[in-house]
Amino acid sequence: MPGLTEIADNGTRLEQLKELLRILADEIDEKPGARDLAQLSRQYRETLREIEEIEDSEENDDEIAEILSERKTAGKAGPVR
After folding, report:
1. Could you tell me if residue 65 is inside a domain?
2. DSSP-assigned letters across all residues of the chain
3. Angle at CA 28, nearest 5°, toward 10 and 41?
């Protein structure tokens, strides 16, 4: 599996965030001290939230594309006015 450096150079933002999430999870699994655990946990939650936002956005884009495709197939104008 490629590391964060390679993904940062060649991956999408979503791929980068998922790799960062994996790294943070690995660090949390090492059972760091309380202060480090709090910071890692906070970063983990923020990264997870950002991943979910991107994935939700992509799902919404797919729904819109599907509607536009159906309208085009039906011979209707693309966007609804």
Report:
1. yes
2. ---HHHHHHHS-HHHHHHHHHHHHHHHHHT---HHHHHHHHHHHHHHHHHHHHHHHHHHHHHHHHHHHHHHHHTT--SS--
3. 85
Residue pLDDT, tens place only, 9-56: 878 899 999 999 999 999 999 999 999 999 999 999 999 999 999 888
Rounded (5°) CA angle 35-37-43? 110
Residue 80 covered by a domain: no
In a domain, 69, yes or no: yes
What is this structure's pTM? 0.67
How far is the C-alpha of 70 from the C-alpha of 76, rounded, in Å? 9
Task: Determine, yes or no, domain membership for 79.
Answer: no
Instruction: Please give the residue range of the domain that contains residue 65.
Output: 4-73
